[in-house]
Amino acid sequence: MYKQKKNYIILLCLFSIQSTIAQISVSFQPLSNSFPLVVKGKAAAIYSDAADAEVVRIAAEAFRNDVKLVSGVAPGTINADAGSQQVLIGTLGSSRIIDALIESKKLKVDNLKGRWETFTISIVDNPAPNVKQALVIVGSDPRGTAFGVFELSRLIGVSPFYWWADVNPVKHNEIYFSKSSFTSPTPSVKYRGIFLNDEDWGLQPWAAKTFELETGDIGPKTYAKIFELLLRLKANLIWPAMHPSTKAFYSYPGNKKVAADYAIVVGSSHAEPMLRNNVGEWDKSMGAFNYITNKEKIYNYWDSRVKESKDNDAIYTLGMRGVHDSGMEGVKSVKEAVPLLEKIIEEQRGMLKKHVNANVAAIPQVFTVYKEVLEIYDSNIKLPDDVTVVWPDDNYGYIQRLNDEKENKRSGGSGVYYHASYWGRPHDYLWLSSTHPGLIREEMMKAYQTGSDRLWVLNVGDIKPLEYNIQQFMDMAYQAEPFKESSYSKTHLKNWVASVFGAAKAERISSILWNYYQLAFERRPEFMGWSQTEPTTQTKYSDYNHFYYGDEAQRRIDSYEKLVSDLKTLRPEISAKDADAFYQLVYYPVIGASLMNKKFLYRDKAFLYAKQSRASASDYAAMSKQAYNDIVKETEYYNNQLVNGKWKHIMSMEPRNLPVYKEPVLPEISLGKTGGWSIAPEGFVTKDSSLITKGNAQFVLPVFNRTSDKKYFIDIFLSEDKTLNWSARADGWISLSQRSGSLIPQAGKREIRIWVSVDWNKVPRNGRQNGKISFTADGKTLDVNVGANNSVPPQLANFKGFIEEDGFISINASDFSRNTNKKNQGWQLIDGFSTDKSLMALPLKGVNIPSLKVPGDLINSAPSVEYDFYSVTSGLPVINIFTLPTHPVNSNYSMRYAVSVDNGPVKIVDFKTAGRSEEWKQNVLRNSAIRKVEGQSINEGKHTLRIYMIDPGVIMDRIVIDFGGLKKGYSAIPETKKN
User: Fold this and answer.
1) Does the predicted TM-score (pTM) go above 0.70?
2) Quick one: residue 573, left, alpha or beta (phi over 0 = left, psi -120 to 50 = alpha)?
3) Angle (CA) 920 549 525, round 5°
4) Beta bridge partners of 470
5) Dihedral angle computed from the Cα positions of residues 16, 20, 24 and 26, in that order, rounded to the nearest 10 degrees
6) DSSP state of 207
7) Which of 935, 895, 807 is nearest to 399 (CA)?
8) Alpha-carbon gap, residue 839 to 819, rounded angstroms
9) Which residue(s) pair with 826 in the sheet?
10) Which of 60, 161, 593, 670 lies in disulfide reach of 48, CB 3.0 to 4.6 Å?
11) Tens digit of pLDDT for each residue in 815-851?
12) Where are the beta strands (DSSP E) in 350-413?
């Protein structure tokens, strides 16, 4: 240790160093002109001043453990060996060694003073007698110091989730840092953290029964691990767990202390004013939670907590709601609520002024406008200017409101409360990580770019398995700039995967995860039962079509099968050190989502195929049941075998015991007689199985068109348990994927799918050509009529656009013919969610809304995108437009766009939803708002669809023009061929 500060300062004056700002880098091979952290079995000693904040000591000790984790060598404490290297860690004004370096001008940190949570990392030569070099980490404040230390941990390969997801770093015998200096930027968002919520099925039972037996609950030992994770993520805020299953945060004195030790700011959720957990702390014996009839007890209840927490770093939630996520008691209307809330807030601030700081404006306070509170806020409540307004999403990832110009001028600023996990109507999603990274980026960057940068809180449920959602959210909150480009979502995911599993596997693993999120965006695994909650309904058959669009349901199953196949091919290549992390971060969520989808889609096939007298119906029923059993098996492994039982009780496959998680209810299967076998061409749907069993069905495929390269399927199936040899013959221009084969009474072999296409070189150029496919087996022949249109209208010779097929046209919004942006306003391409790209109406603020009174003005002033298409049908088309169910950017706007065909009448569309309407429920379940616009009557030929921008924040995903042939389906229909 340095014992004589005076001599130390004098000697420091003999030396000087010129620092430059550059990104410091790490090497695991000898590097010229570098700082050797570990070399030849010895590690540089680590020093932090005992007078510095406790979080600095904690970070220094964690870094010591990280170095040992990577190198096997544990750094010691400071010594005076000649030629030694040392790591000096300290906060401005709180570390005598750091202050001495600054005073001697050895270390320049002028750009740190007065900044929030900022740090420098630099290398100083000859900082003291007998010390050759020092790696110096200096923070502008204690958290800044800790962030700098954990930045070094990240650089040497220790993931923030090293403990929470068992991410083991690559081992290295030697570690070197480049001789450069780095100063971190100020965090983009001031307060950044997580809300532990709905912890009943994972975090709380795991803490109580596995990790923190001495407390039997989520207590200080668990919070210490959570707070370390937050610091490693460069986050600073906690909204503690608060369900009835968990005792209130302040019930355990150690919780308050560990928060102070780790310098974590303690707040509370939208339902918990003044750091009080009502569900655990408001006793019925205290009377009604009604400020009109029981003011004294409620006032004292809040006042005592403010007094108790006055020495903690805290953010106080102002206002009042019901005991638990319900409306305020004692008022019958918003009109009555406004003056009462104003009085409550005034008295709450009086408590803060009395106990915490006479300058109440210096105390962080928030007013979260969640659910009914938003209506109260919009009724011109007088909210003190220094209070931070926190905008919530709608619980499904779509932010309900953001700042207008007036709100941007408030000194308290604004923030966002965002969900990546949720319990409630229309349905929970508490099991897997299913919120698309692209959606998180789009909504949170919209918030950031419109001024909501004071506080971001992510509802993370049980923490696991939301590891990546947490990482992305905190990285964005810490440094938002890279996320301004939508393409960075994929880049960030790949970089994160590389940091965990290595660069060599990053592309493959990140591709699996991205596609996993794409499929979850189309329909979350938890929503696959088509059931709802509050009230709870039983599961239903899905909206996926099994008979059109090439079997829409099977296409989804195949997509999951591809992910699972890639996953299982990759798994044996994962090193032993990464196996546990791979299971938690990749394998379990992907496998779980795949199995949940198969459980329901195979059940649907069992039901539908039984109606067609398919013997394979029983196979699908068995596969549905097996999918459920496999979820049970994987979850058992997660809880009982993974990392030798470390995570026992953390993972529940049926949170809240909702119907969607239960064993599938399978249909009774009773097959009619069909002569042993039959067929079902694509598009053949009948509720009358006798059409098959009596041989009266007229089998026909949809018509093939030369302008398309489509193919259609025909299923051949057994209806009795027998062996069947079959053959098929077809006209010469008809191509079959298989012309003969055998069906046998074994699982998976009772049916076969034949794909039919057309060899256009063999079809006569004389318009419509009719042909036939004949299937023969066991003395019976069944025919399928096939039509092909080989004529191409002259108008299509040089046409560039979409062409009608099967009575409709499907267009991805990003695949426009022209984009006429005006004055930095218009439709901008962003990375898509269900399609590769989407279109977003920009900018997000400062938009002059075009006049809606005169459509001509709209046409002349509004940016538009245009889509050229060719119809072969005359009539009155219906234009289906699919947008993400976003909400207005602020109260100045709605969610409007306008539609016109061939410069005809302009129709203004608004998909803004009200409250928790049935439309909103369906929108968030399918992540899509659908509007049907009836166009004017058109003739066969070329046309142009124009969609005009009106309100910012509209995200257009796809368009389907229906000429009468569109069939019911759920997912994005593959694009109609575009010339």
Assistant:
1) yes
2) alpha
3) 45
4) none
5) -50
6) I
7) 895
8) 11
9) 842
10) 60
11) 999 999 877 788 999 988 877 888 898 876 544 454 3
12) 365-368, 388-392
